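Box 4.2: Ligand-aware structure prediction
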Amino acid sequence: MIIQLKKGISKPMLENIHFVLNEFKIKNNYVKTQVAEYLVCFSKNEFDIRKIGFIEGVEDVHSVTDDYKLVSKKWKLNNSAINLGNGIVYDAFNPIVIAGPCSVESEKQMELIVQHLVKSNIKIARGGVFKPRSSPYTFRGLGIDGLKMMYELCKAHDIKIVTEVMQVSQIEEMLPYVDVFQVGARNSQNFNLLDALGSIDKAVLLKRGISGTIDELLQSAEYVFSKGNEKVILCERGIRTFETAYRNTFDINAIQVLKEKSHLPVIADPSHGVGIRDHVSKLALASIVAGADGVIYEVHPSPEEALSDGQQTLNFEESNYLIKQIHSLQSFLKSN
Ligand code: PEP
Ligand code: MN
């Protein structure tokens, strides 16, 4: 059960609600986000929520049987929109495109990529500076200096930045330069990191774990939300299965199922989802048809020379063509 509290609820009113909940032996967690205050409640027995609805200070009561509560669609039927500023609103009616390199490598590379984004009217750039790599001997990112350089280039064109944060201690120094903190697949269940991102007011792009279930992804989103940050974007990026013909099994089912289970925006990452350049564009389009609120993909001036994930990275020509196809698809979907 979720009890949504009235705006500006007084302390005595809240104490009274707690008193009633205790009477009914209902455990509850107080949550305050940018948007509202809630009590997330758990009871061993069936409980008639009408007993709570009339109490002073209660705005609304919802029965939510899922293990995750605040991210569930069972209490919030409308899709959540996330405003990244300057009119970029993330919701089902404005599917969004995020593109950029796997890793920020150099100023020259980023200049070319930002030019490409501007020409294609892409308003959000991706680019890793703290890179989780399977081998410690490979390129692990330019760190905070790379992020600052990316920020300067993007700021000049009002392009927002998505970049991965790998540990709690990085958040503070990254904060001024980041619009969306990406939690990568390897950190999808790093609960300390999720807690910490729950207490800041920046959007979080939460990727599905390498072997993560949909339920685990939603529980991870619940960590961020219940710590106070409602700005969570879910991301399907493929999972590990027995199949070895491609990097990951891009789980397109997950897009529809996540949209059904949660009110949060859902985006798709076909680059990591399939891991093979030739298939990325088609899977990006398929994701939009499957109901994704946006796509994130990797692009580089010369993918063959990329320091990470070149094999799944589009060149500018491929990216241009994909953008054209996405636009045609969007107008087709809107008019049908
Ligand atoms: C990335 O976005 O470059 C990345 C490392 O993604 P993932 O965490 O999905 O592997
Ligand atoms: Mn990558």
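In the box above, the bound molecule is manganese (II) ion. Residues 82-334 form a domain with the TIM Barrel fold (CATH 3.20.20.70).
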